[in-house]
Amino acid sequence: MPKPPPPADERKKRRLALVGGSLGNLVEWYDWFVYASFAIYFADSFFPGDNPTTQLMNTAGIFAVGFLMRPVGGWILGRAADRHGRKSALTLTVTMMSVAALLIAVAPTYGQAGYFGALVLLLARLLQGMSIGGEYAASATYLTEASARNRRGLGSSFQYVSMTCGQLLGLGILITLQHTLTTAQLESWGWRIPFVLGALFAVVVFWLRRRLQETDAFKEEASGEDAHDDSTRGTLKVLWQHRRQAGLVMALTLGGTVAYYTYTTYLTKYLVGSAGMPKTTATLVSFTALTLFAVLQPFAGMLSDRIGRRPLLITFAVGCTIGTYPIMTALGSASSYWSALGLSLLALVIVTGYTSINAAVKAELFPTRVRALGVALPYAIANALFGGTAEYVALWFKSSGHETLFFWYVSGCALISLVTYVLMPDTRNAALSRAEAQADAEAEADGGPDRPAAAPVSC
């Protein structure tokens, strides 16, 4: 058996994995979210008409359609990650995202090619949906497996740090363009700039991800006693054997994804359309709130490594269930930057209880041979049904004159997840590899502290 690397080398390896996985994830989610950030400028380029809400609903509809491809991408790329490794799947997802960003950058407007431009937009979002469907699971699995056992909450928290930083990068570019270009220029051609940049960023990330090392958990699985029979790794048949865990992933995702997209991608539009804020002020509110939100993630992840995952999840669900209506109502009448920022931060602090640790929780529910697919497919289905449609549902309620019903919708989704969090086991002590399971068995035999496995052992 090979000698384990010295502690210093091991720490260096974990840091490189964290940085590499996070930066790639940042660019992936930059490309994904920049669509929503710039929709207020390109909506009328693809959909003619005089009603801004209708135009935004059309672009939001295409945003939601991208989510419909996430289960497909989750299945294909999750299977690839379980069969061929996390690294290869991460490299493939960023390649797909680069192509999609380039398609949006060159898509013709309605005035140039009629609805053909909207079709190109739709195809690009479908490709992005496939890419993100695999990216979430591959990065969640990679960051969790590459982290030390007692720091998985911290390691996995960087998934939403990088996701949020990707969105911040998009918002930062938007703010820069708002101050360097006129509104007419932004609506005419300036909105294409962030998509060109996204394609270029992805090329750099492709090179970076080629240099990543595979996780020990996957290498152990691939070289184990049954490595010669890898035909079952990452298959729906094996996932079906863990259908209870898959159901848990869907239920615990429901409230979190609706709340996250409500207070991130939809927030700017809500402040502009309902509170009547200028676009520049609303964008600045979102940028500042998300910056502080990203800073909070590692601290919440570290807290979960000490006290467990369930306390944070339950706190999020209780806060979202009872707090959504008053927070959204107050945001709708916010008259200043500071009042909107304070309310947005309050909401995002609540959401942190979910975002900081959900990647670790999901990865800790499954064994190595089906971990990526187990995270990807049920999560992608929940996002397609609820996360991707959150903005569209909000705009639909607004256009029908019943905007406040959306607030109750968000609260109801959080309540369902709350029941799940209360009933599910805490996954903090789960063994993700045979080596960890063996260490637990040896510790128990020696009379050491009991570490009950809260999830199936990876064997």
How many strands?
Answer: 0
Spatial separation of the terminal alpha carbons: 18 Å
The assigned structural class equals mainly alpha
Q: H/E order of the elements?
A: HHHHHHHHHHHHHHHHHHHHH
Given as residue ranges, the uncertain stretches (5+ residues, pLDDT < 50) are 452-459
Could you please describe the fold and organization of this structure?
This protein is mainly alpha-helical and 459 residues long. Helix content is 78%, strand content 0%. The chain contains 21 helices and no strands. Helix 1 (7-46) packs across helix 2, helix 3 (70-84) runs antiparallel to helix 18 (371-387) and helix 12 (243-263) packs across helix 18. The relative contact order is 0.14.
Secondary-structure map:
Blueprint: H1 7-46, H2 52-68, H3 70-84, H4 86-106, H5 110-113, H6 116-146, H7 152-180, H8 183-188, H9 193-210, H10 216-222, H11 236-240, H12 243-263, H13 267-273, H14 279-307, H15 310-332, H16 337-355, H17 358-363, H18 371-387, H19 390-399, H20 404-423, H21 434-445
List keywords for this structure.
459 residues; mainly alpha; 78% helix; globular; disordered C terminus
Task: Summarize this structure briefly.
The protein is mainly alpha-helical. The chain is built from 21 helices and no strands.
